[in-house]
Amino acid sequence: MKGKxxxxxxxxxxxxxxxxxxxxxRRADIVESVSCTTRLPREGEAHGREYFFIxxxxxxxxxxxxxxxxxxxxxxxFYGTPKSFVRDTLESGRSVILEIDVVGALLAKEAFPECxxxxxxxxxxxxxxxxxxxxxxxxxxxxxxxxNRLAYELSQKDKYDFVIVNxxxxxxxxxxxxxxxxxxxx
Length: 186
Ligand code: ADP
Ligand code: 5GP
Known about the structure:
This protein is an alpha/beta fold and 186 residues long. The protein has helices at residues 16-26, 56-64, 83-91, 102-111, 125-135, 140-148, 150-155, 169-180; strands spanning 5-9, 30-32, 35-37, 51-53, 68-74, 77-82, 95-99, 116-121, 162-165. The protein has a single domain (5-180), classed as P-loop containing nucleotide triphosphate hydrolases (Rossmann fold), CATH 3.40.50.300.
């Protein structure tokens, strides 16, 4: 049986990474696509695990070679989903989760109409700010830029197949799992 492709989006700091990483740790038949990016690694990030950290030149070459399912620019850096990895993994029967922004997710659905779109929403703006600050990985200015995108991202939620409010973490993980298993109602 072929696996499912899911794109999981939502504002920076909403908990996408936490939800997706916990689920794939529990389920060997679900994997996360590793994107390519031109941004520098954050502390603790490893090449080939969080991202493939590549140069702008290499990124441009791979665009030319049509090697991305979708790609986009955020905060001055490029991010893209390698096509061959997604195709091979789905063929092997495993499901693939893409953790990408709204624009990238809509592009992925265009390229791959079976792609299921899942939006993770915060319980409140205050809670989102608290999580972003608590993560301690961006400056105040970077946090401000990320919050400025929030309204736009949430305004696209009608285009999504599912919306999960990440209030209680375990509930949110269970909701994502039931979507992968085809047991959730949209
Ligand atoms: P994203 O990948 O969407 O940018 P992260 O997964 O890095 O977000 O989460 C941002 C911060 O919020 C992290 O410090 C994480 O531990 C915390 N977090 C995630 N989900 C919850 C939750 N349901 N309740 C409280 N804190 C959470
Ligand atoms: P970060 O730098 O915080 O890891 O990611 C910044 C933004 O890039 C996030 O909104 C994230 O969802 C998005 N992103 C990560 N990988 C990809 C990708 O492969 N394609 C697209 N379009 N966006 C991505």
